[in-house]
Design a protein that fits this description.
The complex is a heterodimer of chains A (about 525) and B (about 45).
Chain A lengths: L23 H22 L3 H14 L4 H13 L3 H14 L5 H10 L2 H23 L2 H14 L4 H13 L3 H14 L4 H28 L8 E6 L2 E6 L8 H77 L4 H17 L4 H9 L4 H5 L19 H31 L3 H14 L4 H14 L2 H14 L5 H56 L1
Antiparallel strand pairs in A: 1-2
Helix pairs in contact in A: 1-2, 1-3, 2-3, 3-4, 4-5, 6-7, 7-8, 8-9, 8-10, 9-10, 12-13, 12-15, 13-15, 15-16, 15-17, 16-17, 17-18, 18-19
Chain B lengths: L3 H6 L10 H6 L6 H14 L1
Classes of the chains: A mainly alpha (about 525), B mainly alpha (about 45).
Chain lengths: ~525, ~45
C-alpha cells in the first residue's frame, strides 16, 4: 500500500513515514474497498451478477484505482449483455493502468469478433426502442421488439426484466414467469427479476384461487369440462382446467374420424347432386341431339324427295333430249327436211329420192297407219310438234315432189304389173297411194297386183276403197266388177269352208254318239251280270 | 401489486457503442480517497 499523499510505501505505522500524514482512515477505506471487491467476486462466481455489480461499484466508490474490481465489473456488465458499459469500465481501467492490464485481453477478445459486437450493439438499440415503445404505451410493439432483442442477445438481462414487466402488466403471468426464469439463469439473484417473479406467482395463484372458487360455485359434480376464464387485454381467455391436449393415437383417431365424416358427407350429399346435375346435362344433350337428328332426318327426306323429283325431271329431260336428238328426234327430222329440200333444189327430177327423204319425217297420218292403205288424206304435220316454218317448208317441198313422185311410182308399178312383178308393183303402188291417197289409178293397179298375187283380202280392200271413196272414177266400175267377182269367189270359198267344218262336226257327233252307246251298253251288261 | 409506471421509470436506455465515448467521459470515478485528500489539503491550508 502506498501513501495517498506522497505515494511512498507505507508501513505498519498509523502515519506515513515519509510525509507524516495520518493514514488510519485511508487504511480503513482500502480495507472496506477490498471487502467489497471480494464480495463482488464471490457473487460473480455464483452468477449473482446484479449483486456483484453493486459490490464492485461500492468497491470502486471507495477506491477507484482497484483495477481488478473495475475489470471484473466490466466483465460482469458484458455477461449481462451491456457491452458498452463493460467497454467503458475496461477503458477506464486501461487508462489507470496501461501496462499489464487484464482489460486489454477482454477488449481484444471482444473486438476480435466485430460481427458479434455489431449484433450486440444492434440489440441494444432495439432494446432502447422497445423501452421507448413501452413508455409511449405501445406495449405490444415493445413486446415484439424485446423478443427480437433476446433472439440476438440472449444475455441482456434488462430486456428480460422489461419483457417480464410488460407480461405482468398484461396479466400474462405464465409468460412473465417463463421469461423471468430465463433471466434468473443469467443473473440468479437479480432483485428486480425476483420481485417480478414473485408478482407473477401471486397473479397465477390469485387466478387459480378465483377459478377454484367459481368451480366450487358451479358445483362439484361438474367434470373436466370446466375452465378458467380470464381477461388478457381485450381478449377473454378460457383455459380448460382438467382437460389436457389429446395426443398420440387419440388425435390420429380423431383425424381419421373427421376424414371419414368428410368422405361420407361428400358421398351422400355432394355426389348425388353432382350425379343428378350430370345426368340432367346428359339428358338435355341427348334431347338436343335427338332434335337435331329429327331435323336432319326431315332434311334428308326432303332432299331425297327433291332428288327423286330431279331424277324424274332429269329422265323426262333425257327423254325429251332423246326425242330431239335421236334417230326419231326433232334434230333428225330437221336434217331430213333440209336434206330433202337440198335434194329437191339440186335434182328437181329426183322426185322419188326427195320423197323418200321426206317419208322419213313422221307425219300424223303415217303414224296412225303404217300400211297407208287406210289413209284417206294427205299426210299432215302436227302443229304441236313442228313449227310453222318447218311445216311450210315441208309442204312446199312435198307439194313440188308428191304428185311427180306418185306419178313415177304409179308408172313404175304399172310396168312391174305388166311384167307380172307383183310384189315390186305392190310396193311401188303402195308408196304411190301413200303419197296420193285419192289417186284411183294407183289404188286400182294396187288392187290388181294384190289380186294377181293371191292376196284377195287386200285386193278386196283396195277395190272397196275405189268404189267407196272414188265412185266417180273411171276405175270405179272395173273395181266394182272385180269386187263382185272376188266376193262370189270369196263366198264360195266360205261355203266350202263351212261345209267342211259341218262335216267335221257331224263326224265328231257320230263318234261321240257311238261312244255313248257303247258306254250305255257296257253299263247294261254290268247290271245283268250283277243280277 | 406492482406499479407499472413506477417500475418503468426504473429502466433507462442502455448506452450504445456510438455513445461509448460520452459514457466514459460521464463516468464518475471519484472515490473516498479523493475526499480524504481533499480534506487533508483543506486541513493543511487551515
Amino acid at each position: 500500500m502506498r501513501c495517498f499523499n506522497c505515494g511512498s510505501q507505507l508501513t505498519n505505522t498509523p502515519y506515513c513515514t515519509n510525509c507524516g500524514v495520518d493514514i488510519r482512515e485511508y487504511r480503513r477505506i482500502m480495507w472496506t474497498s477490498n471487502q467489497y471487491y471480494n464480495d463482488g467476486l464471490t457473487k460473480a462466481k455464483v452468477r449473482d451478477l446484479s449483486g456483484a455489480v453493486l459490490s464492485l461499484r461500492a468497491c470502486l466508490k471507495l477506491n477507484r484505482t482497484n483495477i481488478e474490481a473495475r475489470n471484473l465489473l466490466g466483465l460482469v456488465y458484458f455477461e449481462m449483455g451491456e457491452a458498452v458499459a463493460a467497454f467503458s469500465e475496461w477503458v477506464v481501467s486501461k487508462s489507470m493502468k496501461p501496462d499489464k492490464n487484464l482489460a486489454d485481453d477482454f477488449m481484444e477478445t471482444v473486438q476480435a469478433n466485430p460481427g458479434r459486437l455489431a449484433t450486440i450493439n444492434q440489440s441494444i438499440k432495439k432494446y432502447n426502442q422497445a423501452l421507448q415503445y413501452a413508455k409511449q404505451g405501445s406495449l405490444d410493439l415493445s413486446v415484439i421488439q424485446l423478443k427480437k432483442v433476446l433472439q440476438v442477445n440472449p444475455n441482456l438481462v434488462v430486456a428480460y426484466e422489461l419483457l417480464g414487466l410488460l407480461y405482468l402488466q398484461a396479466e400474462e403471468y405464465g409468460r412473465a414467469k417463463r421469461i423471468l426464469a430465463q433471466a434468473l439463469k443469467i443473473d440468479r439473484n437479480n432483485t428486480r427479476v425476483l420481485y417480478y417473479l414473485k408478482e407473477a406467482d401471486e397473479g397465477l395463484n390469485a387466478r387459480y384461487e378465483g377459478g377454484n372458487s367459481r368451480k366450487r360455485g358451479r358445483g362439484a359434480g361438474r367434470e373436466s369440462t370446466d375452465a378458467i376464464t380470464y381477461t388478457s387485454g381485450n381478449e377473454t381467455i378460457i383455459q380448460p382446467v382438467n382437460s389436457g391436449e389429446r395426443r398420440g393415437s387419440s388425435a390420429i383417431l380423431n383425424i381419421l374420424i373427421g376424414v371419414l365424416i368428410g368422405c361420407a358427407l361428400i358421398f351422400f350429399l355432394v355426389l348425388p347432386g353432382r350425379i343428378r346435375r350430370a345426368s340432367g346435362e346428359m339428358d338435355e344433350q341427348l334431347k338436343e341431339v335427338s332434335d337435331e337428328l329429327t331435323l336432319k332426318n326431315a332434311d334428308i327426306e326432303e332432299q331425297e324427295k327433291k332428288i327423286k323429283s330431279l331424277e324424274n325431271e332429269n329422265s323426262e329431260l333425257k327423254g325429251t333430249l332423246g326425242d330431239l336428238s335421236g334417230s326419231t328426234g326433232m334434230t333428225e327430222r330437221y336434217d331430213h327436211l333440209a336434206e330433202a329440200a337440198l335434194n329437191y333444189m339440186k335434182n328437181p327430177d329426183d322426185v322419188t329420192g326427195t320423197e323418200a327423204i321426206l317419208k322419213q319425217i313422221p307425219t300424223e297420218s303415217a303414224s296412225m297407219n303404217s300400211l297407208a292403205i287406210d289413209a284417206i288424206s294427205m299426210p299432215e304435220l302436227d302443229p304441236a310438234i313442228y313449227s310453222q316454218a318447218f311445216r311450210d317448208l315441208y309442204n312446199y317441198v312435198d307439194s313440188g315432189v308428191a304428185s311427180k313422185a306418185a306419178r313415177t311410182y304409179i308408172d313404175r308399178g304399172r310396168e312391174e304389173f305388166e311384167r307380172k312383178e307383183y310384189q315390186a308393183a305392190i310396193a311401188d303402188l303402195s308408196r304411190a297411194t301413200e303419197i296420193a291417197p285419192l289417186n284411183d289409178e294407183a289404188w286400182y293397179y294396187l288392187a290388181e297386183s294384190y289380186k294377181e298375187s293371191g292376196d284377195s283380202i287386200h285386193a278386196t280392200q283396195a277395190y272397196s276403197r275405189i268404189v267407196n271413196e272414188m265412185a266417180d272414177s273411171d276405175y270405179a266400175d272395173r273395181a266394182r266388177k272385180n269386187l263382185s267377182n272376188g266376193a262370189a269367189a270369196e263366198t264360195q270359198d266360205t261355203a266350202e269352208t263351212v261345209q267342211e267344218e259341218n262335216n267335221q262336226d257331224a263326224l265328231a257327233e257320230a263318234l261321240a254318239l257311238q261312244a255313248l252307246q257303247q258306254a250305255v251298253a257296257g253299263a247294261g251288261n254290268t247290271d245283268t251280270g250283277a243280277e | 401489486m406492482i406499479d407499472f409506471e413506477e417500475e418503468l421509470k426504473k429502466f433507462h436506455p442502455s448506452p450504445e457503442v456510438e455513445d461509448a465515448e460520452n459514457a466514459i467521459r460521464a463516468l464518475d470515478v471519484t472515490d473516498m480517497v479523493d475526499l480524504i485528500v481533499h480534506l487533508e489539503e483543506r486541513n493543511n491550508l487551515q
